[in-house]
Amino acid sequence: MIRLISISNWHLCIKNQRIHLGGLVLLLFVGHFIYKTTVTTMENYQLSNNGEICKAMVVSRMKVGGKGTIRVDYRFNVNYKEYSGVVNNEEYYNGDSINILYLEKSPEINRSYNFIKENYKTQIIP
Questions:
Q1: 8 A C-beta contact, residue 101 and residue 56
Q2: Integer Cα distance of 116 and 40 in angstroms
Q3: Residue ranges making up the domain that contains 113
Q4: Which of 6, 40, 71, 76 is the most buried (most CB within 10 A)?
Q5: Strand ranges inside the chain, DSSP E
Q6: Which pTM does this prediction carry?
Q7: Can you say whether the dihedral through the CA atoms of 95, 125, 121, 110 is positive or negative?
């Protein structure tokens, strides 16, 4: 025997699926946030313990957002290849030199030496 679903029950079923889909989207968003935060923290610990230090050149400085955040972009070379990075709220201007730490096997992972020094224990001295 085939049972037909009335329109009102079908509508209720769709509403329940939307609720479950919304919960799934929220769960994925929270999971992604936790993953990215964990990866960044692990990179920072690797930099504080095993980072290579070098000088980078500030190439741009701009105010971003409404709270006065200053974004400073820098570039540096490792083995004749150019890499870049960003630091926020540090007083550097175009053309300034900045000490940075990078991972020898992955120079694209880099941070300002001052950031690592202020937030993590490091024995690395410029």
A1: no
A2: 12
A3: 1-126
A4: 76
A5: 52-64, 69-78, 81-88, 97-103, 106-112
A6: 0.77
A7: positive
